[in-house]
Amino acid sequence: MSAVNNLLDKYREVRSIASDSALADSLHITRQGVHQWRKGLSWPSEDHVIAMANAIGEPAERWFVAINADRASPAARKVWLRLAQAAAAFAVIYLFSRIDVHTAGENLAFLPLAFIHYAKLAITLILALAACAAWKFKEKQHHARILER
User: Fold this and answer.
1) Quick one: how many helices (H) and strands (E) in the chain?
2) Residue (of 142, 12, 76, 138) closest to 20 by Cα position
3) pTM for the whole structure
């Protein structure tokens, strides 16, 4: 199942929306628009992704990466997925590197709250770098195709 379909289904579930027609109404688009998103004929705008991600309580950055990976060519898809894995690994490493083992016992209950902001910031920065790298990759592929002609 595609990332767009997963996002639409989660949004429908959280909002208790019964049909794709009602889903389209809640997003202020046509039913055909939702159908095209589900079939991969078109893609939701960044504003729609942000609105749905906020409604389900998940970071929009995660959905941008997943949707762009679905949209990309097979070679670019591998790049997107590797970048997403690297971002997740970096965030985990960063989070655990910030734990002070000497005071962790005293403040263990507050650790997730203390560092969650920095982890989100790190993930956002990595995803922005990933988007730039993928864009450059696509641009190089495009230029290579032009030169082949």
Assistant:
1) 8, 0
2) 12
3) 0.56
Residue 88: closest CA among 54, 133, 127: 127
| Domain spans, the chain | 1-58, 72-149
Alpha-carbon gap, residue 50 to 37, rounded angstroms = 15
For the stretch 57-89, pLDDT in tens is 988 888 888 888 788 777 777 777 777 777 777
**What pLDDT sits at residue 96?**
65
Tokens of 56: 């389900």
Look at residues 126, 115, 119, 136 and name the one whose alpha carbon lies nearest to residue 85. 126
Q: What angle do CA 55, 20, 57 make, to 5 degrees?
A: 10
Distance CA 144, CA 149 (A): 9
Mean pLDDT across the chain: 78
25: left (phi over 0), alpha (psi -120 to 50) or beta: alpha
Residue 106: phi and psi, rounded to 5, are: -75, -40
The answer regarding whether domain 1-58 maps to CATH 2.60.40 reads no
Contact 20, 31 (CB under 8 A): yes
